[in-house]
Amino acid sequence: IFLDSDDWFELDFLSKLVETCEIHQSDISICRSVEFDTETGKESPSNWMLKTELLPSKKTVFSPEEAATVLFQFTYGMAWDKLYRRSFLMNEGISFPNLKNSEDLAFVFPTLLAAKRIAVIEKVLVHHRINRSSSVSNTRSSQPSAPYDAFQIVKHYLKTHHLEKQYEQSFLNWAMEFLIWHISNMDDPDIQKIYFKEFRKKWDKEINFEAYGWRFYRNKIIFLKYLLVKYLPFCLFTYIVSWYKKLKNQEG
Asked: Across the strands, what pairs with 8?
């Protein structure tokens, strides 16, 4: 298991995850979490971290093939809410890459693809701290290429294991959302501009998202943001995104 040192956990966190793996003979078990805001001291639900409603028949135990259309959507590429069978990791040879950020997803998604069985627990066992001043999410300036490098690692895993077609829609929907999120939500304008330019110059040209057509993508807001990144000047894109965020905050 891979825990963040400033999160905290329910007392039965490990026992519940191990018990779940043993009962269902799964390679991975995943639990629910809540977010603890360091700045406000308040907790809030994070149901988006584990979307069991997307799973076929809302199953809590399944193979990756059964969830092929949503494998990259039902959970996030974070390692701290997941427990792994050690023999499974050793046999598969999957490890964290040498990246300064986004390394979790380059580990998590290959493990989800490789697992024979995955089990989820409908119980909050992790209190995940956000708005950390020392968080790795605030150090992206040291390696701005890392998100795309991580994406390439997952893509390479799919290709070398001949899984591209089977998981294509789920993977590309995730890839667009993941890369566009970095451009839309980066607080540092210099890094944001680097992401914006890299997306237009390299990332999108290699992936060619638009070739699949708008119906291929489930999240139309993300697809709209993708079009804004692809066709608008940086200053206009950031203005529209800023306006959209303010509108959402007012509605909230």
From this structure: 127
